[in-house]
Amino acid sequence: MKSYKNIVIYYFTGTGNAEKVAYWISEIAAQMEVDAALVNIANIDRLHIDVPDPEALIIFISPVHGFNYPPVMLNFIWRFPRGKNDIALMNTRAGMLIGKFITPGITGVAFFLSALLLKLKGYDFRAMHPVDMPSNWISIHPGLNLNTIRYLHINNKEKVNVFAQRLISGKTSFKALREIVQDILCSPISLLYFCIGRFVFSKSFYASKDCNHCGICVKKCPVKAIIYVDKRPFWTFNCESCMRCMSNCPKKAIETGHGAMIGIMVLNSSVLVGLFYTYFGKFFFDIKDTITGFILETSLFLISLMIWYRLIHYLMRFRFFERIMVFTSLTKYKFWGRRYKALSDKEFIK
To answer: What residue numbers bound the domain in which 69 lies?
Structure first.
């Protein structure tokens, strides 16, 4: 059984879950007198990646977005240099709580696609391990309360510590393979999210009148997806929906435009697609159920989404319209819009 003298942990994090797991592993490594290097991939040159120590155990940790690793982590793995190191894949996925039962998230294709890429580069796998950290995606569901967050932190720290001890000691752990059936069933959703969903969510964020132009959202975006347009934050298609901007805004001025998203769906389905099928009926009906038709409709939708979002961004300067946007956003309301950031160890043991 092989043990390791040093490990390198590459992680991507939005609200701190993956970073927290990386830190917990590094604590166990220190107790076992193993050197651990933590690398936040948002802070390094991802085009020219340094070759790691050939004897090091390499761990990749990332949240799951749309049942897959987000593009920033996938691109990092794609560009990762060839090697013979042992590899562990981990993810932080949307954990929830019912009573004392932690409802697990779904990994989807995150491990399988990444494992294929790394296997082709020559690496060997020692673990595929999910961690059900608190879900931060308040665009989709109500934010978790503090007691739930603390419970999930305490529970997961214990599990991660046990996993880290086994892994660093040279043992394998392929817990994720127990869920292979549900992960395969979710693969079509992963594809749809990658092709369409992530772009929709990127255009769902806006800054309300409470924004004081501090620039924290722009400066701290890990993929530099937020820019200033008309002196206000503007989310580009590069957004990973990691929720860091929303969770770090000191004024809680960043909201999800639920009303605006309903508007673009209605506009696209009843007007844009309807008009195209009306005026170009025969051609479009011939390709409607083909790959070409899917690509065409997706392209039309994304173009209309881009125009719609730019229009909303412009109209937000008018108070009446801005108020409509705010009050049709679920993240505005206390019962839904609890912002989330991973707790420090001192916070979750209170």
So the answer is: 6-189
